[in-house]
Amino acid sequence: MTQRVAIVGAGLTGSLLACFLARRGLTVTLYERRPDPRTGSAERGRSINLAISERGLDALRRIGLAEEVMADALPMMGRMIHPVEGPLDFQPYSASQDRAINSISRSALNNALLDAAAKAPGVEIVFEHRLVGLDSQAGELVFETPSGRVEAQADVVLGADGAGSAVRGQLVGEGALADDADFLDYGYKELSIPAAGGEFALDPGALHIWPRGTSMMIALPNPDRSFTCTLFWPSGSFDALTTAPQIERYFAEHYPDLLPLAPGLVDDYLHNPVGVLGTVHVQPWQAHGRTALIGDAAHAIVPFYGQGANCAFEDVVELDRCLDDTGGSWARALPLFEARRRDNTDAIAEMALANFVEMRDKVASPVFRLGKQLEHA
Ligand code: FAD
Q1: First CA to last CA across the chain, in angstroms?
Q2: Which residues form the signal peptide (predicted)?
């Protein structure tokens, strides 16, 4: 009999995973708590673009989606450092001209993956289904929907429902696994730099950084020629600025080149939410050989290496490989997946934390710049 797989969460990980599992001839139902994002508008201030690197592109290539996604991508060849005073400083990521990280719209990527999953044989996507109950041993799921509670049954349940995973919460409640989250004492807020006279207001071939010691701002280009900026500031410090004159004065002093480029700065600052940042640790990632976590649900990390989604895409490729290597046995593939991935996800979690210090502080130091020049010499 064909195995029925339930994937909870149709974000980047869940929708990619559905595409991979469909190729194995499995019957997949993808449950998502939100309405279909392809018919609505994006949430305000939630990481509008992502840096996708070779690690993520590899997964997209395997399902024939890399070309479509890359058609709108903006390659960033290095960092552009914006000091408070003085000239901009471009620091290439690599001596090689063909290596870049790519700025990609999160919603366009998610929509392309949902379209691909919807077209894949054996995949059904069910929106407005929020997981609220799970019996991981019996494979029974309970969802809240606009028309009341709905129950479902699956042979395998995969939690791809992000950093605050409800699947993980249910497994912790059953005593099947333990989790903890290290929250950073920093929050993030998004701002926008619109196109100026139809053109990019900054160089679109770079990831822009305003290092300010204990805090920073970054900006990535978008296909509509705008930039999305993200402030990473100590938690609580966002509340110190509450009026338009205060906000303008602060940015004029600390981010002087931003002010003329961001006419909506005050509105963005006052209305966009402050997001939290943290690292999630889970042990183990699977229970009973039939329920498992994947992507941010298993190992959410801070965003300073731009590798969370890339790493989640690598998870999907590795899980598929483990199914190949175990003749499609979930009971053997799920522990194998964890054994093969954990060292890598632990490493990137540490590197992402370390890169925050590099980005907000070290990139502005002359010694750091000299070191990079020698690396590329
Ligand atoms: P999510 O994207 O969180 O998707 C989870 C899905 O599950 C959502 O659709 C949600 O609605 C759904 N869901 C949640 N609960 C339920 C429930 N109870 N029932 C049903 N559905 C549910 N990564 C990069 O690679 N490059 C970057 O440049 C980058 N920049 C980032 C910048 C910021 C500010 C942040 C916060 C993160 C960034 N990341 C980046 C990380 C990246 O966003 C995540 O790693 C990625 O989104 C993880 O995908 P996911 O599908 O596992 O989780």
Answers
A1: 60
A2: none
Q: Is ligand 1 within 6 A of the CB of residue 166?
A: yes
Look at residue 377 and tell me whether its pLDDT is greater than 80. Answer: no
Q: What's the full length of the chain, in residues?
A: 377
Q: Give yes or no for residue 14 CB within 6 A of ligand 1.
A: yes
How far, in Å, CA of 267 to CA of 249, rounded? 15
Asked if residue 47 has its Cβ within 6 Å of ligand 1, the reply is: yes
State the number of CA atoms in the 13 A half-sphere of 8 facing the CB: 36
pTM: 0.94
CA 327 / ligand 1 centre spacing (Å)? 30
Question: Under DSSP, is residue 249 helix (H, G, I), strand (E, B) or coil?
Answer: helix
HSE-CB of 28 using CA atoms within 13 angstroms: 28
Q: At which residue do the structure tokens 């840096």 appear?
A: 51
pLDDT 10s digits, 282-341: 999 999 999 999 999 999 999 999 999 999 999 999 999 999 999 999 999 999 999 999
Q: Which atom of ligand 1 is nearest to the CA of 310?
A: 25
Cα torsion at 193, 65, 77, 272 (round to 10°)? 20
Helical residues (DSSP H) of 1-53, grouped into ranges: 12-22
Continuous segment of H or E residues that includes residue 167:
helix 166-174
Of 134, 157, 131, 141, nearest to 286 (Cα)?
A: 157
Sequence-distant (≥ 6) Cβ neighbours of residue 292 within 8 angstroms: 157, 158, 159, 285, 286, 298, 334, 337, 338
Q: What are the tens digits of pLDDT across the range 6-64?
A: 999 999 999 999 999 999 999 999 999 999 999 976 555 455 899 999 999 999 999 99
* Cβ neighbours for 289, distance < 8 A, ≥ 6 positions apart: 330, 331, 332, 334, 335
Between the alpha carbon of residue 290 and those of residues 152, 192, 232, 285, 340, the distances in Å are 15, 44, 39, 11, 18
